[in-house]
Design goal:
Layout (H helix, E strand, L loop, with lengths): L2 E4 L2 E3 L4 E3 L1 E5 L2 E6 L6 E4 L4 E4 L1 E6 L4 E2 L2 E2 L4 H10 L2 E8 L6 H15 L3 E8 L4 H12 L4 E5 L10 H14 L2 E5 L3 H13 L6 H5 L3 H18 L3 E3 L5 H12 L4 E3 L3 H5 L10 H6 L9 H13 L14 H4 L19 H10 L6 H15 L17 E5 L4 E2 L18 E2 L2 E7 L2 E5 L20 H14 L16
Parallel strand pairs: 1-6, 2-7, 8-11, 11-12, 12-13, 13-14, 14-15, 15-16
Antiparallel strand pairs: 1-4, 2-3, 4-5, 7-17, 9-10, 17-20, 18-19, 20-21
The protein binds N-(aminocarbonyl)-beta-alanine (URP) and zinc ion (ZN) (2 copies).
């Protein structure tokens, strides 16, 4: 049975225009005026946009002695209700290793997800086994590897390990991702603040100033450039990190920056809240910054020196956050956002003139699909693409409230924020997964894994250029060499 989305204005990353969209099965069959289908989806007065892609989530992730409370079922339904049709989640291997961890993530996602998904794999050390497993993981459709420069004693890798892993990424045609904060420095600052009796959630922010992020961002870029591999910096939160990215891009280095909607809209005053729970619920890494940093991130999105907006959705309940009462270093790090990312970015980005509607589509979907190498299957409204489509209603506002959210946790860091636009309908490969006019339910098992091929063109360009400019020994005439020394 075909469907036609009628009466809306299509907003793509490159242009806006009025047309209907015909869907047959999983994909877009045609785009144009006056199309007919078996079922009509009303887009009158609305925009029609490619489904959002959240490139950074942590669903059911074991972390800091507990596990994130957002399940694949609740998380992907929450995402769909907010206009997101694909999440890319981080597989974090423990002692079981990469392959067994990937099996676990795949099994959970396949059983529970309402929308499509992909995976990034974390590299948390270095060994022959990891070297080998990275090849296997790439063969299973995972083309991105995450490196934590923070979380000392847990997930952190050092420069040697990062260099080895980046080199392997280059060989495989994979893209390294980096959590860029100087983990050694943070560990020292944490100890210092605890010793001084500074043990509340605010000390989390004191121990992670923007400089530690800027330094690590620069270091990650230098290592990637030395290896000859592109690099993607996750949760870019500060002007210092943005500056390192800008500087590198000016030199022709391929580096991408990912601000989060939380860092764009929430600031460090949250940690000064007299209510401990309120402050702890907002503990994440990097922490919220001040207005100067927020302005820098918005400017980067408009200017093209930052590229995508994610959520790093890593949702713990208030109860879990209380594990850090009396010791801020034990508060599980992470905040939520995947349900509200599009509404917030539209309201505080597009409605305020910081982004055009087309830039909004680029940073929430198209750029992400391109960088993660699933474009134009995802991130595009063109015939043949997956019918991951949102009918986006710019007049259907709401107030964000934990009491009405789909997310499984008991609070929302954006509680009380007014948003002016929401998803009227969300379609995932042609199936309605969110209908704001009725009570939609999760559709566990509907979502599918989207394998992502390796990056051939950029790898070839980088290795060709590296070879051309490689330092070479000077071939000297023996007559010009000193004799008898
Ligand atoms: N960001 C955060 O605080 N928690 C999730 C893990 C990570 O991405 O660092
Ligand atoms: Zn991180
Ligand atoms: Zn994360």
């Amino acid at each position: 049975m075909s469907k036609v989305i009628k009466g809306g204005t299509i907003v793509a990353a490159d242009r806006s225009y009025e047309a209907d969209i015909l869907i047959e099965g999983d994909t877009i069959a045609a785009i144009g005026p006056g199309l007919k289908g078996d079922e009509v989806i009303d887009a009158e007065g609305a925009y029609v946009i490619p489904g959002g892609i959240d490139p950074h989530t942590h669903l059911q992730m074991p972390f800091m002695g507990t596990e994130t409370a957002e399940t694949w079922e609740s998380g992907t339904f929450a995402a769909a209700s907010g206009g997101t049709t694909m999440v890319v989640d981080f597989v974090i291997p423990g002692d079981e290793g990469m392959i067994a961890a990937l099996d676990t993530w795949e099994e959970r996602a396949a059983r529970q997800a309402s929308i499509d998904y992909g995976f990034h794999m974390a590299v948390t050390g270095w060994s022959q086994q990891i070297f080998q497993d990275m090849g296997t993981v790439v063969g299973r459709g995972v083309n991105t590897f995450k490196h934590f420069m923070a979380y000392k004693g847990a997930l952190m890798v050092n420069d040697d390990e990062m260099h080895a892993s980046f080199t392997r990424c280059a060989e495989l045609g994979a893209l390294p991702l980096v959590h860029a904060e100087n983990g050694d420095l943070i560990a020292s600052l944490q100890q210092k603040f605890m010793a001084e009796g500074n043990s509340g959630p605010e000390a989390h922010a004191y121990s992670r100033p923007p400089e530690v992020e800027g330094e690590a961002t620069n270091r990650a870029i230098v290592i990637a450039d030395a290896v000859g591999v592109p690099v993607y910096i996750v949760h870019t939160s500060s002007e210092e990190a943005h500056e390192a990215i800008r500087r590198a891009r000016q030199k022709g280095i391929r580096v991408w920056g990912e601000p989060l909607v939380q860092h764009l809209l929430l600031d460090e005053s949250e940690y000064a809240n007299p209510n401990w729970d309120h402050a702890a619920q907002r503990v994440m890494s990097p922490p919220f910054r001040d207005k100067k940093h927020q302005d820098s991130l918005w400017a980067g999105l408009a200017a093209g020196s930052l590229h995508v907006v994610a959520t790093d959705h890593c949702a713990f309940t208030t109860e879990q956050k209380r594990m850090g009462m009396g010791d801020f270093t034990k508060i599980p790090n992470g905040t939520g956002g995947l349900e509200d990312r599009l509404s917030l970015l539209w309201t505080y980005g597009v409605e305020k003139g910081r982004l055009t509607p087309n830039e909004f589509v680029a940073v929430t979907s198209t750029n992400i699909a391109q960088i993660l190498n699933v474009y134009p299957r995802k991130g595009a409204l063109i015939p043949g693409a997956d019918a991951d489509i949102v009918v986006w209603d710019p007049k259907a506002g709401k107030t964000i409230k934990a009491a009405t959210q789909k997310s499984a946790i008991d609070y929302n860091v954006f509680e009380g924020f007014e948003v002016s636009a929401t998803a009227r309908y969300t379609l995932s490969r042609g199936a309605l997964v969110w209908d704001s006019t009725s009570q939609s339910q999760p559709q566990p098992g509907r979502g599918a894994h989207v394998g992502r091929p390796t990056y051939q063109a950029v790898g070839r360009a980088l290795s060709t250029w590296k070879e051309l400019v490689a330092p070479r020994p000077v071939l000297r005439d023996p007559k010009m060499m000193p004799i008898g020394v």
